[in-house]
Design goal:
Blueprint (H helix, E strand, L loop, with lengths): L5 E6 L4 H10 L5 E8 L8 H4 L12 H4 L4 E2 L4 H4 L5 E4 L5 H13 L3 E4 L24 H9 L5 E4 L9 H4 L7 E10 L25 H12 L2 E3 L2 E3 L5 E8 L6 E9 L5 H9 L17 E4 L7 H4 L8 E8 L5 E7 L3 H17 L5
Parallel strand pairs: 1-2, 1-4, 2-3, 4-5, 5-6, 7-10, 12-13
Antiparallel strand pairs: 7-11, 8-9, 11-14, 13-14
Helix pairs in contact: 1-11
Length: 360
């Protein structure tokens, strides 16, 4: 990258993920936030006014955006587009509206990196976990040709829950996993809430996160799919059974994983595979953690409060690997859901788009 930064906008800037985008993009070497957008009721307000009483990040609102006036996401699109080349989308509306809005920006030549689920199964739109399936970005060429877009594009990130175990399973593909049973213990921020404004979650565990288990079972198969004949083929012969539980934790999704393999590896082989798995290391992307996966030998690690900030919140923590009496092995994974699983993962994807030449 040269000294000129790419001007970017944040759609849904007042929500929790939008706030996380703002903090992570402060002083970013590639990107400069020049436009913030939210709902029509916030349009025209200074960001600090619209975020008053809603700001939940540990860091204060950066001065670079506090005085910035908000646009309306959809109504002010023609004012936003001339100012930006890329938008990060974190809006919270119905899926049909999300698809319409994201396609409208892309049709006007803007790169859209989405934190939403609306386009995760759209055939010509890649769902990217940067270390796992960067080759799926080739779908952008098909997407642009099909839709008549020149510079515009849409890329989405996967569900936050799968980031705690898909990175750990991927380097073990060489041993042909066949069955996976996973239980995720998910923080309240995954619902855009805090322990302060969700008192029902204090001293409580909720066994239902609507729709989360289907996402956790299906999305990994698309991530691991092969791009053939202009589409992602779901070739991984793996059965995943997921249970997703909301727990009274502020940030950090933990997963308990049990796996059966066609060719059972040794414990040492598994740990070595994790330690050596860092496919983005040579690209030197600003948000890419090094190491990607950190394995803890201590029996009581990883712990959410201690380890969710590994690699500035972009690293994956692993631990408690042992043989299992029902399947072959069991272990624990942990990721920061609003950094790795949301805004940070989207920013890393945008960095990869630049490296691959999709954003000039």
């Amino acid at each position: 990258m040269g000294t000129t930064k790419i001007p970017v906008g944040i759609l849904g800037a007042t929500g929790m993920v939008g706030q996380r985008f703002i903090t992570l993009l402060q002083n970013h070497p590639y990107f400069e936030v020049v436009a913030l957008a939210a709902s029509p009721r916030s349009a025209g307000k200074k960001y600090k006014e619209a975020a008053e009483g809603r700001w939940v990040m540990e860091e204060p609102i950066p001065e670079s955006v506090s005085e910035m006036k908000l646009f309306a996401v959809e109504e002010d699109i023609d004012s936003i587009v001339p100012e930006v080349r890329l938008v990060f989308c974190a809006i919270d509306v119905d899926k049909d509206s999300i698809r319409r809005i994201e396609e409208a920006y892309a049709s006007k030549g803007i790169a859209v990196v989405s934190n939403n689920s609306a386009h995760r199964w759209t055939e010509d739109i890649p769902m990217i976990l940067p270390e796992i399936n960067p080759g799926h970005l080739e779908l952008i060429d098909i997407q642009r040709k099909k839709r008549g877009w020149d510079k515009g594009l849409i890329v989405v990130k996967p569900n936050c829950s799968i980031q705690s175990y898909v990175p750990m399973l991927t380097p073990l593909m060489q041993f042909k996993p066949t069955e996976v049973i996973v239980t995720t213990l998910q923080a309240v921020s995954g619902a855009g809430r805090t322990l302060r404004n969700w008192p029902e979650m204090n001293d409580n565990v909720n066994p239902l996160i609507p729709g989360e288990e289907e996402k956790s079972e299906r999305e990994p198969l698309r991530i691991w799919g092969k791009l053939k004949n202009g589409a992602i083929n779901l070739e991984a012969n793996i059965q995943i059974s997921a249970t997703c539980i909301r727990v009274p934790v502020s940030n950090g999704h933990m997963a308990s994983i049990a796996v059966k393999f066609e060719g059972k590896p040794t414990k040492e082989q598994i740990i070595e595979a994790w330690k050596n798995f860092n496919p983005l290391a040579e690209l030197d992307l600003p948000s890419a953690p090094n190491p990607f996966i950190t394995y803890f030998e201590e029996e009581d690690r990883p712990q959410t409060a201690l380890d969710r900030k590994l690699g500035k919140g972009m690293g994956i923590a692993a631990g408690r690997l042992s043989e299992d009496d029902v399947l072959d092995y069991r272990f624990i994974g942990l990721s920061h859901n609003t950094i790795r699983g949301a805004a940070g993962g989207s920013i890393l994807t945008a960095e990869l788009l630049i490296q691959k030449g999709y954003i000039k």
